Every structure is written in structure tokens, then in C-alpha cells.
Amino acid sequence: MFIIEESLDIESLKESLTGKQKMFCEEYLVDFNGTRAATAAGYSEKTGYSIAGENLKKPEIQAYIKHLTENRNKRVHVDVDYVVGKLKTVADICSKENDLGNIDSTGANKSLELLGKHLGMYVDKTESSSTVTVKREPTISFDDEPTE
Known about the structure:
Elements (H helix, E strand, L loop, with lengths): L9 H7 L2 H13 L2 H7 L7 H10 L1 H18 L3 H16 L9 H14 L30
Helix pairs in contact: 1-5, 2-3, 2-5, 3-4, 6-7
């Protein structure tokens, strides 16, 4: 998503952001909705959508969001292994028959779908077609210059 220098310390990064920008980053982590985060941070409702787009393109804001996300993940002990493990557990539980002999096929399918996406088993395919017309202008060349 973005590249940031390893030597960049978080304090100088925080100092480079305005109060609204810091609040935007913190609000963005709530639900990853940029427009909502912008208005919650104090930007106008009319400009929230465009401000969110602008902010999310700024490398310093991207870096601060990454920093906040990493800190939250450490704090709550969530990583890829945890999520994949939980998805596997849900898929296993949902695939077992209950007392009535039924399984939770919706839960099992959703868990297996997310695991498959994580493993790269599904590739979104898009088709496109276009027509290209090349117009050539005739070229005229003379072997000899005309004489008068």
C-alpha cells in the first residue's frame, strides 16, 4: 500500500500531523470508513468524502494508520495465525451435525470462503474488450527536389 522509511520515528510522524489528521486516523480504525472518520474528526459533512480520499493518499497519514493498526493488533493479540485458526474452528464446528442431524452450511461456507480467499484459491476475473482504430495519414516523399 505504501512505503515508509524504517528510520522514521513515530514522534516526528505524529508532530507532522494536524490534530484533525490524527483524529481522522484514530476514527478511521473504528470501521475503516473514511467519510465517517473525516466528519467525526471535525471536517465538514459536505467535504468529508473528498477529505477522506485526500487524507488516505498522504504517506504520513498512511504510516500513522499503519502504526495505530499494528499497536492495536499487538494489544488485542490478533494476527493472521489467530484469524485463520478461528476461521478453521468455525468451519469445523459448523460442519458438524447438530442433534437434528443438520449442519450450519451458511457458517461453514462463509468460513471456508474466507480461508480460500486467504490462500489465494479464488481469483477475481474481469473481462474487457476494446476496439482500437488506427488512422494513417498518407505520406508523400520526393526523391529529388524540384528544380526551377
